[in-house]
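Worked Example 4.2. Consider the chain below.
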Amino acid sequence: MQAKRRPKQSRVAIIFRSIFSILLLFVISLALSLLAYKLFSGDMQKIYITLSVITLLFIYFSRLLWKRKLYQSKIKPQTFDEQTDKLIYDLFTNQELAINTFDDILSKGFTNFRLLSIYGIGGTGKSWLMRVYRYKAQSKGWTVSLVDGSSAKTALEILITIGHDLDKQGIELLFFNEMLAQYNNVLKKVSSETQTRKGAIKLATEIGKQIPVLSAAASIIDLASQDEFQVVLKSFLSKEDINLFINPEKALTEAITRDINSLIASYSIVILFDAYEQMSGLDKWLKSFTSQLSKDVFIVIAGQTPLSEYWHDLRTTTKIIPLEMLRGKDAEKCLDNFSKLYYQKSIPESEKSMILEFSGGLPLAISWAVDLMSRYQVEKFSDVRNETIENLVETMTKVANADMKEVIEAGSVPRWFNEDMLKYILDKNQIENYSLLRSLPFVRSRPEGFALHDRAREYIREKLRIQTSDTYIHLNQRCADFFKKQSDRIYAYQGKSSIEFQKFTIELIYHSIIINESTGFALLQQEVHDALEMSKLNYSSLLIEEAEAQISIPEHRAWLLYWRGELAYLKGDWDFSLTFLNEFQKEVKHGHPAYVNVYITLGKIYYQQGKLEKSRKMYLNSLQYMKESNNPLLEGYVTEQLAKVFRMEGNIEEALKTHEMALSITEKSGDKYQICSASGSYGTTFLISGNLHEGLRYLSISIENSRQDGYLHFACTGLRSRAICLMYLGKLREAEESGSESLQIAESVGDTYNKGFARLALGQIFTAKGHNAHLAKPLLESSIEELTIVGAKFDLGNAWVALGNYYRTQRDWHNSQQALERASELLSSLDYKYGIGWLNYYRAKYLLDFGSELEAMDLFLKSEEISRSINSLYLMSLSLLGLAEVAITQNSTQEAINLLKKAESVASQMEYYDVLAYTHFYMGKLQVAMPGSDIFYPFWNALTNAIKYNCYLYDSIFNEITSFLEVHNKDNTEFSRLLIKLQDKWTVKQSDGTVWKNIETAARINEKVGY
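Applying the procedure from the previous section yields the following structure tokens:
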């Protein structure tokens, strides 16, 4: 709907008014002439009469011209309200959605909705927005009525306000004005008659209050009963007048609706309702009234609360806009505007920031602050802060019942509440005003119950703290007691892992810190320590964030920096961790008890980044620091970390000795957390050395303890290392289960680093399994992404090696080469012998597959040399096997046999069945060329070891043997028959369709044929 021009007056009305005006002028002129004949004579009579007529004509036509000028003007001369609207428009800070929506309505009209609902807590600028709406609408030629619910308390007052507003803008409401005049006459009659009747007493107050038109209404008298009153009224009023007197809203609503609906074709009308929350008693009537108006009348309703359920059926034609706090530049602009209006000079920047922080973007808070600073002529906001809070609280709670003060104060202390909590806090059996409290405009629902709006709660709570500090502390103590009871109850049957326990404990710590920071912080410290140990990272983060806004003692804030650094490390956000820990070192002196922890975490980060020298330095610093504190538990942990550094440097022998020392220290302490850590780390070092069975033993100890005591971090790392051990031993199904569990734990705690490492392990396992190797690629690619995020260079290099090996097994030579080159770029910059050894081995395998035997041999030699220097037996056995393969391709039979025997010797010590399978297979191949040699025995051993490793290796070895025999025309009928029997008898079909070989059957056949 577009704005419309004002309609012209009818031609008949204009002619009638002109004739009446001329007759009136004639009568006045005749009267003046008679007066002139009496008072004057001669020429003076003519002069007087002529001047009188000219004067009357001048007045008449001037009045017509002035009225025409006003008529042609779109906006009448500004009244006080309109001048104020202009000022508010200039000062108002942009609420983009609310302003743009209304601008669209004014310029484009409205079709999708005709009711705009705006709500927000007290002080968000709703009343100012309504004045801006009025100014904008009138500037565009719209007819506007603004009804303020804080002053128009009844339906009658609302209707009279609308009628008055429309009348001021030149709209004649014929039916409404006539009905209102009739109502006023009825009131006069009632007032006059009841005052004179004998025995009359004052009329009921509630009747008088709904009559704002006449001052006499307040003193209308009442009679002894309603029946008597009806009798009195009938004696001097008609039935129609009695109905109008008793229920004026009905008649006046119908009249004004009829008027507006008849005029809407010629006028664009918008009706603005402000302070809707104070119209709650009229909600049903208001909805009915606005629904009766033409759909071309636009309605805006603003209040602290959203529209009630009465409006539910109009939801399709209603647009709802919540009015939020001001943010950033909008809040600054609002402050500047108020400063110009009230303060009339610049407010210091330091005070500006204090006001903005205090206000939280609430326009009312900004205006009160600046107004009071101006009123008292002060330059510091702190001088008027308390009075500002008092005024804000009074404004926000003015809709509340006075009896609710105690309940509102109690509800402002906790961050959320329910009825049971308030009963406990106030030590009452019943909260009489609870339902009323829930309906207050600054109370909102939460999953736990209800809560005061953040800004309202802060102001009410602050006022309570300033004016009655003892009551404030008492209420917080009651809250702490309540949450302690709840957390103890949950802990008794669910433990600390329960979300409910964590929720109640956070609230307990919050109130404990308010009561006494040192006592509350001690509780916080223990809870954060336990949460970090158990890798409850989200819970740890919540605890730290909650404390950040409350803690003020410097030593406590230093602990927060350390915790943030430790949490970021555990999450894999190592750059953030370094930022927090470096900040800690800058701000805190060496005497702080968290200093040794900072050294340790820095050592761990440098270790993961490949900066082994820096890592060792941090650990040595922490050990030196601990000499003064005499903390054997921490000493055991740092010793363990040093062992890891030795491991990464390739000094496996020294690493194993140091691990043994670390485990000995921690076992004496009896600390299960540290025992988990030391056992798991020891097992991983055995894994790298190739001692897989010892590795499994210590990893199993770590996993069992970590599962039992809820140490998720160690369960995750232990399971991952265990998966690699099982993969090397050929137990691929168990390896996959272990790796999957490790990944599941890492995802549950949000540990980016361990997620990346677990995916790497699973990718290697699927590559080894062969039949579903395609699953390895997305795992390895995701691993690379996650390890890149955290900057774990060692493990990232390993991931690229694993991806290169995957592509090699798929004969994708190009991608394999690129991945291995990327791994080389990463690992060559690190002193990481173990990783470089594996890189050389897989590059050599790639070159051997590609036919570059000499280059492959060079890399196999380097790999074997590194494996010997770090005593990594598994890598050593594979490197020797690789060199044997090169010798076979070069027809160096004796050299190949020697290398195969060396590989067999190493592999036999540690039961590397995959290596043993291939050494015996290659032995069989070599013996084919030897006259009189028995090829059956080595091939048989190859198959037996392949079965012990896994079925997929068996398939590979079996196929290679049969192909080899066919190529070399070996007609060994007995051997061929045995192979067929093995293939039949060693196959067991499982329910999932997977083929597995039965080792027991193999053993029986082995016995039968005498091997």
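The first strand starts at residue 115 and ends at 119. Confidence is low (pLDDT under 50) at residues 1-12, 64-80, 198-226, 985-1011. Compare this with Example 4.1 before moving on.
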